[in-house]
Amino acid sequence: MGTRAGMIQSIVCGGMAGAAGTTVLNAVTYADMAWRGRPSSDAPAQVVEQIARDIGYPVPDPEGNLDNRLSGLGALSGIAVGCGTGMAVSVLRRAGARMPWWLGGLATGVLAMAATDLPMARLGVRRPADLVGEGLDVGRRSASAVRAGHVRDRHGVGAFSVRLGRREVRDHCRESGAT
């Protein structure tokens, strides 16, 4: 496959690995909430609200459900960050950056944390001191990244697409090293 097509495949495979990692992160987060009885965070919703306001397009609230809309948009932004992180890491792998699975998982987890926590700190939603002390969050994100890397490396991320009739994507992800 040509360079452009290979890059597109790499991005698709990375996005799928990011989706797998995001699913693991969500499962671990909800299990932690259930175990400790803690509430969900409203920080993602606050970030969405501030960014929307800052760019001049506040989230509409015709029925008085603003909190629900912001909560949904905050969750969607987390999914976007997870998929985007997977895409970025996949492109780096395609460019030749290779790490052992455990180090790659840790680095990917730190990258995903930076992509979410730095905007929170910049917007004043959370203090940097609060973000530094969250070892559990590093663990959750690294666990999800390790799982995404395992799916990518062991099973071929494109295996998820078999049910969609896209065997060629799976085969390409496995054979070309696009993931």
3D structure, described in words:
- The chain is mainly alpha-helical and 179 residues long.
- Helices cover 75% and strands 0% of the residues.
- It is built from seven helices and no strands.
- The protein has helices at residues 3-36, 43-54, 66-94, 101-123, 128-132, 135-155, 167-176.
- Helix 1 (3-36) crosses helix 6.
- The longest helix is centred in the first third of the chain and has 34 residues, at 3-36.
- It starts with a helix and ends with a helix.
- Residues 155-172 have low confidence and may be disordered.
Q: Roughly what percent helix? A: over 70%
Largest sheet: none
Gyration radius, to the nearest Å? Answer: 18 Å
Mean pLDDT over the residues: 77
Q: What's the total helix number? A: 7
Number of strands: 0
Beta-strand share of residues: under 5%
Distance between the termini: 14 Å
Shape: globular
SSE order in H/E notation?
HHHHHHH
Which structural class do you get from the secondary structure elements? mainly alpha
State the low-pLDDT regions, or none: 155-172
Main traits of this protein?
mainly alpha
Summarize the topology.
Blueprint: H1 3-36, H2 43-54, H3 66-94, H4 101-123, H5 128-132, H6 135-155, H7 167-176
Please sum up the structure shown.
With 179 residues, the chain is mostly helical. It is built from 7 helices and no strands.
